[in-house]
Amino acid sequence: MPRSVNAVASRARRKRILKETRGNFGRRKNVWTVAKNTYEKGLQYAYRDRKRKKGQFRALWIQRINAAARLEGVSYSKLMGMMTKQNIEINRKVLADLAMNHPEAFKAVLNKAMA
Length: 115
Hints:
75% of the residues lie in helices and 0% in strands. It has a single domain (8-114), classed as CATH 1.10.1900.20. The protein has helices at 7-20, 32-71, 76-85, 92-101, 103-114. The longest helix has 40 residues, at 32-71. By secondary structure, it is mainly alpha-helical.
């Protein structure tokens, strides 16, 4: 009995991965083994960086809050400590948005925390 290999599915799988690696340099885009390794490594980077992105945004929010707070003469750490004591629960994302787009609202929050 002849061997069945299902060339249609194999070719489709290779074609999908070669399509994903289009735009890479040299053999990374058209040689199957190299392209497959590139594709798999790319998926690893994507997974890792989806996690990393959250930390990068948090760092950005903290920088923005710190910059706005220092214009009012308070450091970031002092501000967050005062907010904790006053039981003001605004997350860093919202606080950074207030600092950037609504400085008067940020100042009101800061004054409430200092009271």
